[in-house]
TrEMBL record:
Residue stretches making up the GAE domain: 663-778
Biological source species: Odobenus rosmarus divergens
Topology versus the membrane: Peripheral membrane protein
Coiled coil: none
Name the UniProt record assigns to this protein: AP-1 complex subunit gamma
UniProtKB keywords: Cytoplasmic vesicle, Golgi apparatus, Membrane, Protein transport, Transport
Stored Gene3D superfamilies: 2.60.40.1230, Leucine-rich Repeat Variant
GO biological process, alphabetically ordered: intracellular protein transport; vesicle-mediated transport
Subcellular location: Cytoplasmic vesicle membrane; Endomembrane system; Golgi apparatus
Amino acid sequence: MVVSSLKLQDLIEEIRGAKTQAQEREVIQKECAHIRASFRDGDPLHRHRQLAKLLYVHMLGYPAHFGQMECLKLIASPRFTDKRVGYLGAMLLLDERQDAHLLITNSIKNDLSQGIQAVQGLALCTLSTVGSAEMCRDLATEVEKLLLQPGSYVRKKAVLTAVHMIRKVPELSNIFLPPCAQLLHERHHGILLGTVTLITELCERSPAALKHFRKVVPQLVQILQTLVTTGYSVEHSISGVSDPFLQVQILRLLRILGRNHEESSEVMNDLLAQVATNTDTSRNAGNAVLFETVLTIMDIRSAAGLRVLAVNILGRFLLNNDKNIRYVALTSLLRMVQSDHSAVQRHRPTVVECLREPDASLSRRALELSLALVNSSNVRAMTQELQSFLESCLPDLRADCASGILLAAERFAPTKRWHIDTILRVLTTAGTHVRDDAVANLTQLIGGAQELHAYSVRRLYSALAEDISQQPLVQVAAWCIGEYGDLLLEGGCEETEPLQVEEEKVLALLEKVLQSHMSLPATRGYALTALMKLSTRLRGDNNRIRQVVSIYGSCVDVELQQRAVEYNTLFRKYDHMRAAILEKMPLVERGGTPDEEAKESKEAQLSEAALVPTEPQASKLLDLLDLLDGTFEAAQPPPALEPSPGGTLVHLLDLPCASPAPASIPDLRVFEREGLQLNLSFVRPPGTPALLLITVTAVNTSGADVTHFVCQAAVPKSFHLQLQAPSGDTVPAQGGLPVTQLLRILNPNKAPLRLKLRLTYNHFGQSVQEIFEVNNLPMETWQ
């Protein structure tokens, strides 16, 4: 018995009535068999019904690819009911990856020229959905003709199809330039919105179109002014705002047209002020218009008063109950803090309040903005607020907060004592989350402040007695006690409360650090060295210290064992030299400017790299096949360089080398964006003239850290390139410690050098990727 095929409504009811997935699959498989049989029989009257059922099956996630050719047959049918289902099937079952979609090009072309609006609308919808680059090129002239058709229904769909074509094939922009000027006179808001979107796409992809449409800025200003001043309209009003979608799109276009163009920006100023002051902010639609207004004011060359108004609008956003609006305001203020620092400073109390937000994304943005607002005049108050936030913030934010406080204190500290107190409080609160260089920086700071040695050692001893879990704090305290233990026992510091410290308590505290399971090997090394130094600073017997040191002579940790063995030898064989060897560390002078220090550090790294070539790790080799063409190759290790016997002997004996110093090569700045600068410095070792050492230095002068920083490079195939590991992946804000990376380039043919660089990083909450070629390297780098 032949079972008849179900109707669409009956099929839906039966599928929904299935109690298990197996029953559903059984119903669908049975019906798909009937649909296939119907397609094979070629029944033209019921083909569209069968395809409609197949589309419903496709929407449920079951395979329906066998209906693709039936879509083409229905599209070619003269009946509207067939075309409607055929075009719907084409939009659902076809895409650019399948060659079958090209077969409907002629059918779409014929339907566009028929003159029936409903059919033209179906064809335009399908073209804007599945139209490939080839289809767009073939049908661009037909769509251009429909842009000026009398019917608004077809024109609106033609404009949207033109937007899709420009995105697919930007070179078609010349075809759509002339109709756009006429479409701007439309009163139909749907057509006007599509036209503004089309002009925006054209301006973003074609400099010629951008120059062409700057002439229509007064017309766009007039359209937006009419929207702002028009009273309530039932058709276009949303929450009391007249067509906010059109207003937002016009503001985006004005932002593109006014960027870096004085004349266009001047025409917009009065209108932007009017929009900013007259828009209702009680509804979300008004807030959307205001936010686009602020972005436009920030991007164009607006007046100073207008920029202050934009900052004040963002300040009002910070008081909004909606978390999304507050997040948008914080992100926008973070972008403006460099150009309008004083205006943003007025909203500092509100920004600080946002630190207490329970939402992690909001508090992170507020933290970044708060750190960017710190300067010499408010560093005490802001640091106090940030330290309070550090005590209660989420663990994910502690590292960023601690690093930001340390950088701000280093840059704006009013006194050395305040600087030391600030770092100690950060180490006490979140010591495990601070940067790796925090210990070295604090020891250098304490060592350079002779008048604060007694104060520092007493503060650190008290902090260590209370908590030994914060490893950086323990390391600094152990170092300071070892250096200035005599001052700790004297008790002559007037700046702290009287504290009676006995020698036995100090030794017991250091032993506790050595025995603690929380102490890292490096921390135990600090404590062991501190005990050794105290052997020359304490008045009592050193037997206890000698016993502790001898215990660690058989420690599992090799580094700690080596120290203990050396210290034991010092006690046994060289006790007469112990006092001289364990004297206080000399003061570390920060000679010269930071630029000179960076240069000295760079030269030391380069000389070391030139003498001892290192093998790159496999994880550091760069895969730039997607970036470079055939004339370039990714970074590869250079062949091993054979040092001369004389040079090796000089290196081993640490004797001065008599070879002349290489000629200095000027540095080169190759990149600068939003405060991030990339500089190249060059050194050519005298012994290997074919080798060029390039140090890439990334400096960040903006108010926000640059994170996940990666620099990749490639050179032509005639060169050999090796990249050393970078010094870090975070470039601190406000001119902090730069990130450096060494490039070793072997140029045996002495050919002119070209370099391609790719930078990827996160800045101001956005992911950035920059690709550029450096072809203006100094001649001294390759000759």
